[in-house]
DNA sequence: GCGACAG
DNA sequence: ATCTTGTCGC
C-alpha cells in the first residue's frame, strides 16, 4: 500500500485533474458573439415602437472580498447598477467559508459558487433587478485555457458576461511589458484600445486605458454571449474611474460588508 | 531548469 | 486577494 501523498493530498495539485476536465466541458458551451436582445445605447434608455424598453437596463457587478485575519472567510457581492446613471439599484451579499485554495488559472472554482448562489436566489424570486449582463472581477477568455471566471459564471448562469482583469494573466506570449510598449510606442494617435493578439495570432481581448488620464490599462475579455467589441463598448460606458463602476462598487461594498460582519456577533460561520 | 501565474 | 498613511493635483 502507498500511504504517501500520492493518494491523500489536499494541496493544489489534487484538485487540478478534476478542474481541468470541468473547464474543458464547460468551455464547449461558451458563446463569443453577441447573444442578447437589448441594445447598448450610450444616450440612455430607449423604447421601441410599442413603448417597451429596448436598451440595456441593469448591469450586475460581482466580486469576492477577504480579510487578512481569516483568509478562508469570504464575502461575495452582486451589485446591480442602472446602466446609464451608474447608480446602484440593488445589492446582495453572501458570507461563506472557502474550502479550496486559489490556484492560478482556476479562480472560478473558488469564487464562482458564491456568486452563482446569489444569482440563483434572485432568479427564484423573479427579482426585478436580476442583471441582464455581468461584469466580473477576473478574466473571460483571456485565460490559459480560454475559460476564465467570467466564462465560468456566464455559462453556468446563462447571463452575458464580461471579464475585467486589473492585471494581465500572461497567456500566448502576451506580457505586461509588451502591452506597455505598445501603449507608448504608438504615435500621437489616441490609442486607448490595444488588441491583445498572442503569438499564435489569436485575439484574446483588449488592453484598454479606460479613462482619459489613466496610465495603467484594464484587460477586457468576453466571458459569454458577447463579442470583444461589444464588451469594450459596454465597459467604456461604465468607467467613471479606471475600474468600471459595477466592479468597483461590488469591490467597495463587499469589503465594507465583510468588515461589519466580522466585527459583529456572527463569528460562528 | 527557471520564471510566470486573474483574484 | 489583504493592509495603510500620506500626499499630489484639480
Topology:
Elements: H1 12-27, E1 58-66, E2 73-82, E3 88-97, H2 108-124, E4 133-137, H3 149-157, E5 161-165, H4 176-185, E6 193-197, E7 203-208, E8 218-224, H5 228-237, H6 245-263
Parallel strand pairs: 1-4, 4-5
Antiparallel strand pairs: 1-2, 2-3, 5-8, 6-7, 7-8
The chain binds two DNA strands through strand 1 and strand 5.
Q: What is the CA-CA span between the terminal residues?
A: 38 Å
- What's the CATH H-level homologous superfamily? archaeoglobus fulgidus dsm 4304 superfamily
The Cα radius of gyration reads 19 Å
Name the overall outline. Answer: globular
- Name the CATH class: Alpha Beta
**With helices defined by DSSP (H or I, 4 residues minimum), what is the helix count?**
6
Describe what is shown at a glance.
The protein is 30% helix and 21% strand. It has 269 residues and is α+β, with helices and mostly antiparallel strands. It has an eight-stranded mixed sheet with strand order 3-2-1-4-5-8-7-6, sandwiched between helices.
Any overview of this molecule?
It is found in: Cytoplasm. It holds the Pfam family Endonuclease_5. One of its GO terms (molecular function) is RNA endonuclease activity producing 5'-phosphomonoesters, hydrolytic mechanism. Keywords: Cytoplasm, Endonuclease, Hydrolase, Nuclease. This is Deoxyribonuclease V. By secondary structure, the chain is α+β, with helices and mostly antiparallel strands. The protein has one domain (31-263): archaeoglobus fulgidus dsm 4304 superfamily (archaeoglobus fulgidus dsm 4304 fold, 2-Layer Sandwich), CATH 3.30.2170. Helix content is 30%, strand content 21%. It has an eight-stranded mixed beta sheet with strand order 3-2-1-4-5-8-7-6, sandwiched between helices. A hairpin with a 5-residue loop joins strand 6 and strand 7 (203-208). Helix 2 (108-124) runs parallel beside helix 3. The longest helix has 19 residues, at 245-263. The chain starts with 11 loop residues before the first helix and ends in a 6-residue tail after the last helix. It binds two DNA strands through residues 63-69, 71, 74, 102-105, 107, 110-111, 137-139, 142-144, 148-149, 163-171, 175, 219.
Amino acid at each position: 500500500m502507498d500511504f504517501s501523498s500520492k493518494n491523500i493530498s489536499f494541496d493544489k495539485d489534487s484538485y487540478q485533474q478534476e478542474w481541468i476536465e470541468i473547464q474543458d466541458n464547460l468551455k464547449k458551451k461558451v458563446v463569443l458573439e453577441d447573444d442578447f436582445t437589448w441594445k447598448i445605447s450610450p444616450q440612455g434608455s430607449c423604447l421601441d415602437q410599442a413603448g417597451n424598453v429596448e436598451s440595456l437596463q441593469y448591469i450586475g457587478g460581482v466580486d469576492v472580498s477577504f480579510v487578512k485575519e481569516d483568509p478562508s472567510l469570504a464575502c461575495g457581492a452582486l451589485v446591480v447598477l442602472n446602466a446609464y446613471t451608474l447608480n446602484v439599484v440593488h445589492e446582495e451579499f453572501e458570507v461563506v467559508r472557502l474550502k479550496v485554495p486559489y490556484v492560478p488559472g482556476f479562480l472560478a472554482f473558488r469564487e464562482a459558487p458564491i456568486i452563482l448562489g446569489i444569482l440563483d436566489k434572485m432568479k427564484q424570486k423573479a427579482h426585478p433587478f436580476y442583471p441582464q449582463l455581468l461584469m466580473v472581477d477576473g478574466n473571460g477568455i483571456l485565460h490559459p485555457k480560454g475559460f476564465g471566471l467570467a466564462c465560468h459564471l456566464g455559462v453556468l448562469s446563462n447571463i452575458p458576461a464580461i471579464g475585467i482583469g486589473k492585471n494581465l494573466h500572461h497567456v500566448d506570449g502576451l506580457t505586461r511589458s509588451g502591452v506597455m510598449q505598445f501603449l507608448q510606442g504608438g504615435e500621437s494617435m489616441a490609442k486607448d484600445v490595444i488588441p491583445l493578439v498572442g503569438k499564435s495570432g489569436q485575439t484574446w481581448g483588449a488592453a484598454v486605458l479606460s479613462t482619459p488620464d489613466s496610465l495603467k490599462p484594464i484587460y477586457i475579455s468576453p466571458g459569454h454571449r458577447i463579442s470583444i467589441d461589444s464588451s469594450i463598448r459596454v465597459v467604456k460606458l461604465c468607467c467613471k474611474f479606471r475600474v468600471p463602476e459595477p466592479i468597483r462598487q461590488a469591490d467597495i461594498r463587499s469589503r465594507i460588508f465583510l468588515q461589519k460582519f466580522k466585527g459583529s456577533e456572527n463569528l460562528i460561520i
